[in-house]
Amino acid sequence: MRANKLTQAEIDKALAELNRGLDAPWRLVDRKLEKEFKFPDFVAAFGFMTRVALQAEKLGHHPEWFNVYGVVRIQLSTHEAGGISGLDFDLARSIESLDPLA
Ligand code: HBI
């Protein structure tokens, strides 16, 4: 199942694949998948969050996040699995597919 908790080896492999070609990497922080995004202002940051929210709703999988002005810090984990699952990587990939300037 996509929501099953991944092993550390599976996480390491998926993380390396996710980060391939990205300017800034996702990292493991507190057993969550984390990345900080920076935008020129609050409206740009909130626009990005709105698009992430729509993708999250489509996947039925949702971020924990922090926003102040142009900074959006996203943490992904699967509460019902008690760790990181394939769904977290699905959501991370979907977030990376968004055009940050749209
Ligand atoms: N989002 N990140 C995350 N983790 C979950 O376990 C989760 C979720 N969104 C919806 C969801 N679980 C639901 O499946 C339920 O909790 C019913």
Primary descriptors:
102 residues; alpha+beta; four-stranded antiparallel beta sheet; 40% helix; binds 7,8-dihydrobiopterin
- Low-confidence segments: none
Tally of helical segments:
3
End-to-end distance, in Å?
33 Å
Biggest sheet, open or closed, and with what strands and sense?
4 strands, antiparallel
Give the radius of gyration: 13 Å
Short description:
The protein is an alpha+beta fold and 102 residues long. It is built from three helices and four strands.
Description:
With 102 residues, the chain is an alpha+beta fold. 40% of the residues lie in helices and 21% in strands. The chain contains three helices and four strands. It has a four-stranded antiparallel sheet with strand order 1-2-4-3, with helices on one face. A hairpin with a 2-residue loop joins β1 (27-29) and β2 (32-38). α2 (42-59) packs across α3. The relative contact order is 0.24. The model has no long low-confidence stretch (mean pLDDT 96). The structure holds 7,8-dihydrobiopterin (HBI). 7,8-dihydrobiopterin binds at residues 60-62, 77-80.
